[in-house]
Amino acid sequence: MISQIVLSGLTSGAIYALVALGFAIIYNASHVINFAQGEFVMIGGMAAVAFVDVGFPLPLAIVLSITAATFIGFLLEKLAVEPARGAPVVTLIIITIGASILLRGLASLVWDKKIHALPAFSGDAPIALGNATLLPQTLWVLGATVATVAALWWFFNRTLTGKAILAVSHNRLAAQLMGISVRRVLLVSFGLSGALGALAGVLIAPISFTSWDIGVMLGLKGFAAAILGGLGSGPGAIVGGLALGLMEALGAGYLSSAYKDVFAFVIILAALVFLPNGLFGRRAAERV
Amino acid sequence: MVAVLPLALANNYTYEIAILVGLNAIVCVGLNLLIGYAGQISLGHAGFFGLGAYGSAILAARYGLSPLISLPVCVAAVAAIAWIVGKPILRLKGHYLAMATLGLGIIVSVVLATEDRITGGPDGMSVPAVRIAEWVVAGEATWYWIVGGALVLTVWLAQNLIDSPRGRAWRALHGSEVAAAAAGIDPARHKLAAFVISAALAAFAGALAAHYSGFITPSKASFLHSIELVTMVVFGGMASTFGAVVGAAVLTTLPQLLTVFKEYEMVLLGAVMMLTMIFMPRGLVPTLEGLYAAARRKSE
Amino acid sequence: MLLRAENLSKRFGGVHAVRAVGLEIAAGAVHSIIGPNGAGKTTLLNMLSGIYRPDEGSIVFNASSLTGRQPHEFAAAGIARTFQNLQVFMNMSALENVMAGAWLHEACGLAAAALRLPRLARAELKAREEARALLEFVGLARWVEAPSDRLPYGALKRLEIARALAARPKLLLLDEPAAGLNPAETKEVDELIRRIAARGITVVLVEHNMKLVMEVSQHIVVLEQGCKLAEGDAAAVSADARVIEAYLGCST
C-alpha cells in the first residue's frame, strides 16, 4: 500500500512543483506573488478539453492550450502588473487576486461550471509495478516534469534570455545597466509561468479532472510549496512541491483522508515556524 | 472622526445591507489596525470571524448560554487563540507571514466544515434567537441599532488607540522596524497586540453575525472571505479607519448591485478589484483626500 | 566606564567583519570610530546597539550585561542611535517621528489608550512640547509639522538625531552623521554634537569626515579589516604611522 501512496504523492507533488516553479519564476523577476498562478493550471486543462471537444487531436489541443495560457500570462503582466509597478506589496497581492477572480469568472462564462476530463495521453490500462498499479498518465506526469525541469535548467543556464532573467532576479539595477530590458524579462517570466501552469493542468486533467475552480486550491498549495522551498528558489520549489505531495498523500493515507487539504497547510505552518525563510530561501539581509 | 450613521433607510432589504456593511466594517477596522498601521498582513482573518460565529453559536445552541455571556466568552477565547498562534507566526515577514495566516484561515475553515457533529458540517448550523429576559431580539431595525452601536464603539476604540502613543508605536514599526526597535519599541509585543485586537474584533463581528442571521456556514471562514476583507481594507485606504469603513461599505454593497448581472458578477468583481488597485494604489479615501488637497492648493 | 565591550567578533558567511575588538567608552566624552570602508565600523555599531548579535565577546553597559539582548532592550538600557542609511519613519510627520522616539517615556497600557483616559491627553500635550523643543534644539524648527518625505536630506539626518535624543539616552551612537553633507551642514553637525555632549550625553560617532572627527572627538578608535588598529586622542592617532599608512594617507 505504501508504494501506492508514495506514487500518488509524487504525482501530485510533481504538479505542485510545476505550479511552485511558476510562482518562483515570477517572484524572482518581479517580487510579485502571482495569486492567479492556479488559474493558469485551470486554463491549461479546460482549454485542452475545449479544443478536444471541438475536434482537435489531443497533442494539438495540448499545444494550443499551453500557448493560450502563455499568452494570458503576457496579458496579465502587461495589463495588471506593469501599470502597478512600485505599488506596495499588499496592493499587488490584491491585483493578482482580482485577476484570479476575473479569470475564474471568465472561465465559468466561456466554458461552464461542470467537471471535465481530458483523455489520458496513452490510454487507461493500468501498469503493474510490484505491489502497486500505475496509471500510464502518472508516468506522463513524472516524465514530463523531469523533462521540464531539465529544459528549464538548460534555459536558465545556457540561453541568453534565461540568464537575463536570472540577472534581473539577482540585481535589477545592475541588469538594466548591462542593457537587459527588464520589461521583456518580466513578460517572458509571466509567459513562462503561464506555460508551466498550463502544462501542469494538462498533465493532471486525465487523472483528477478539471473544472473552472480547480485553480484555487492548486494555486494555494503551489504557493505553499514555493514558500516551503524558500521563495525564489527554483530547486526549492521542486523539493517543496514533491515534499508537499508526499506528506499530503501519507497523511491522507495513514491519518485522515477528510483532512487531506489541511495537511499541506499544517506542514507549511510548522515549517515556517522553524525555518522562517523556507528550506532554501535567502535570508533578506537589511542593510542599515 | 467617528462616522455618523445614516438614518435614512427605506425598507428591510436596505436595513439588511446596512447591517452586513456594519458587520464587515467592524472586522475591517480591526484588520486595518493590523495591516494599515502595524504594517503586517493577514490572509486568514475570516478564520477568526468564523471561530467567533461558531463559538458563540455552539455555546448558545448546545449549552443554552445566553448570547450576553457566550459573546464575550467567545471573543476572549478567540483572542487567547490569536495570542498563542500569533507569537510564533508574527516572527515571519512579508509573503511568509501572508502564507502562514493564509494557512491558518484554511485550516480553520476546513475543520469547521469537517467536524460536523459539533458544527453541522458544510451545510452549517442554525443559531437560536437572542433572548434577554423576556425580550426576543429580532427584527432588522433592532439589529441595525445593535450593529450600528457596535460599529461606533469599535471605531471609537480604534481611533483612540491610533491617536495614542501605542498607535504611534505601530506606525513606527510600519515605517522602519529596525528604527522602532532602536527606539525601544518591542516589535514582537506590538505586532502581537495588533494581531490579537484585530482577531478579537473579527470574532466579535462573527458572533454578532451568527446571532443576527440565525444561521452560519463554514463559508464565513473561507479563504475567499478573508480576501474580501483584506480587499475592503486596502480598497478603502490603509491607515485610515474611515477608509476601512468606506471600503467595507462599497465592497459589501457592490456585489449586491452586481447580482443584477448574474453570471458576470465574478468577472466584474475581479475587474473592479484590479482596476481600483491599479489606479488608486493607496486606496479610495487617501486618493480622494490627496485629490482634494491638491485641488485646494491649486485654488490658493 | 559607561560601556565596556570585550573581544567582539562577527562573521557573515566567509567574511570576518569584526575580529576580537575591545572598546571602552568613558562617560561624558565624544568618541569616534574611524577606518577605511569595510573596516567593520557599522558592524561594530550594530553590535553595540543590539541589531547584530556578536558571535563572540561581551557588552557591559552601565554595569549590566547586554550581550545577546534584543535591540529594544539596548534602547531601554539607555543606548540610542542614528542610521547610515536613513531609517526615518517616512509615514509620519517630523514631530511624530520625534514623539515616536520618546516611546520609552510615554508608554501607556492598551486599555488606557483604547479608552482615552484623561491623563493620556495631558501626557500627549507634554510629549508634543518636548518633541517640539528637541526639533528646535537640532535646528529643525521650521519643519515641525511637515511630513517627513518633504524634508531635504540634511534635515532628515538631523531628524534622526532628534528622534534618538527623544529617548533620553545616556549613550548616543551616530552612524556617519555627516555623510552626504556639504561643509556648511557638516559644521552644523559639529556644533550639534558639541551641544549634545554639553548636555551630558556620551556620543560615539562613526565617521569618514576626518576634519569633523579630529575637531570634535576626545577619543578615537581606528579599525582596519575588522581589527582595532590604534586608539587614542586626535593628536596621537593622526601621528600613528600604522594609521597613516592604512587610512589617512601621506599627509598634505
Model description:
The complex is a heterotrimer of chains A (288), B (300) and C (252). By secondary structure, chain A is mostly helical. Helix content of chain A is 74%, strand content 2%. Chain A has one domain (2-274): ABC transporter involved in vitamin B12 uptake, BtuC (Orthogonal Bundle). A two-stranded antiparallel sheet of chain A has the order 1-2. Chain A is globular and about 55 Å long. The model of chain A has no long low-confidence stretch (mean pLDDT 84). Chain B is mainly alpha-helical. Chain B has a single domain, classed as ABC transporter involved in vitamin B12 uptake, BtuC (Orthogonal Bundle), CATH 1.10.3470. In chain B, 75% of the residues lie in helices and 3% in strands. In chain B, the strands form two sheets. A two-stranded antiparallel ribbon of chain B has the order 1-4. Chain B has a two-stranded antiparallel ribbon with strand order 2-3. In chain B, helix 2 (45-63) crosses helix 9, helix 3 (67-89) packs antiparallel against helix 9 and helix 7 (165-175) crosses helix 9. The longest helix of chain B has 27 residues, at 187-213. The radius of gyration of chain B is 19 Å and the shape is globular. Chain B starts with 11 loop residues before the first helix and ends with a helix. Residues 1-5 of chain B have low confidence and may be disordered. With 252 residues, chain C is an alpha/beta fold. Chain C has two domains: 1-78 and 171-180 and 202-252, P-loop containing nucleotide triphosphate hydrolases (Rossmann fold, 3-Layer(aba) Sandwich); 87-168, no CATH class. In chain C, helix 3 packs across helix 6. The interface between A and B is large, with 48 and 44 residues.
The greatest interface here is:
A-B, 48 and 44 residues
Percent range for β-strand residues of chain B = under 5%
Instruction: Give a short account of the largest sheet of chain B.
Output: 2 strands, antiparallel
Order of helices and strands of chain B: HHHHHEEEHHHHEHHHH
Low-confidence segments of chain A, given as residue ranges, are none
State the separation between the terminal residues of chain A, measured CA to CA.
55 Å
Q: What's the total number of strands of chain A?
A: 2
- Helix percent of chain A reads over 70%
Average of pLDDT of chain A: 84
Structural class of chain B: mainly alpha
Oligomer: heterotrimer
The CATH topology annotation of chain B reads as: ABC transporter involved in vitamin B12 uptake, BtuC
